[in-house]
Amino acid sequence: MSANRQGRRAFLKSAVAGAAAVGASQLPLPAAARSAGQTPVATPGVPHRAFGNAGVPVPILHLGTAQRLDPDYDKVMHRSFAAGVTWFDTALSYGRGASHRAIANFLTQIGRREELWLTSKSHAGRAPRLAQDIDRALDELGSDYLDLYLMHGVDDEGMLEREFLTVGEKLKTAGKTRFFGFSCHDGNVVELMNKAARVGGIDAILFRYNFRRYGDRELNLAIDACHRAGIALLAMKTQGSVPSDLEAVVGFRSRDFTLGQAKLKAVWADERIASICSEIDSVKYVRENVAAARSEKALSAEDSDQLQRLAKLTAGYACNGCKHLCESALAGEVAIAAPLRFLMYAECYGKTDRARELYRAIPSAARDVPADRLAAACAACPQGIDIPARLRRARELLG
Ligand code: SF4
What we know:
This protein has helices at residues 3-19, 75-82, 98-110, 127-141, 162-173, 189-199, 217-228, 244-247, 259-268, 283-294, 301-313, 323-326, 337-349, 352-360, 364-367, 375-380, 387-398; strands spanning 48-50, 57-59, 61-64, 87-89, 117-122, 146-151, 177-184, 204-208, 232-236, 273-278. By secondary structure, it is an alpha/beta fold. The protein folds into two domains: 34-310, NADP-dependent oxidoreductase domain (TIM Barrel); 319-398, no CATH class. Strands 3-4-5-6-7-8-9-10 form an eight-stranded parallel beta barrel, surrounded by six helices. A two-stranded antiparallel sheet has the order 1-2. Mean pLDDT is 88; it is low at 1-42. Iron/sulfur cluster binds next to helix 12 and helix 13. Residues 187, 319-323, 325-326, 336-337, 340, 380-381, 383, 385, 387 line the site of iron/sulfur cluster.
């Protein structure tokens, strides 16, 4: 076992003793306060929850890094880490390796690999490639292990067969990753979760979950099944965003929280969720996210009502990714969920360049479907989305 791994074990052991599911004030000092020659300053960290049934506490908030990172010195990563967000999520595909390289630089700057949890992901759809990709990820990250390795954007239940699960087992045995699982953006999340709970071998699932999905019976049952199976459930896309002029429709007001914070609190209110992966792209939002995580206040009934009103009033602009409903209602190759997701990146987060790149990678025959062919897709959409209008908007903005 490497010194890194021994150090990580020791760190985790002390963290288990002191941090699991406790208030922020009881947490160990953040690493940034312990550098040589400094007097430690007792700043609070971020509360922790158990990572599935693995007996490991993890911060309830972790940093997604698909955004553009500063390759020399990334303030968001440094401020997040110093505030107790000691878990970063990346992927081979983010910035075509730029995210990995920026994190490698960050690790060199903090000099304490064992104090950062790291997730990375591979889009490989074949088992041998999945096994190879982790070596590339480790090389780019300058690390000898990951804490969590995810199959990225899974929508094929075949990837929960033995062939892939065996790769996860072997990588864990080889010490290349501590845990293994998958992420999914799409509508068959319920089927994937139910299968994961049955087959075993999956330690964690990163999935789209926000205030818009609370009443979804099938999703809740699938979450229950995974929770019982000891799978760590990690939420992403927690903002459930629609364009800001539409978000203003409710005029959200709260004594305690901004709208963004209220959306995070709504997810943390679900005790089955171990952690939120939040793509934080400014120091201001580091502060806002961390303040929400540290706050011991719960959402008020009025806060929750406002979120539910927002969900109802803007449903027609919030695609859930359930492409098996709309795309399978049409003949031939059709892309609806992906263009709408990329439109959301541009409209809600201003990530137009990234959205364009992703949109243009969709075969034009699949994304440029004439409006008069989309009636069956509209009829199948539970959100009541005007699919021809939204695809037209995606084409105008991203095409
Ligand atoms: S357009 Fe409607 S049916 Fe299609 S993925 Fe989005 S929410 Fe689901």
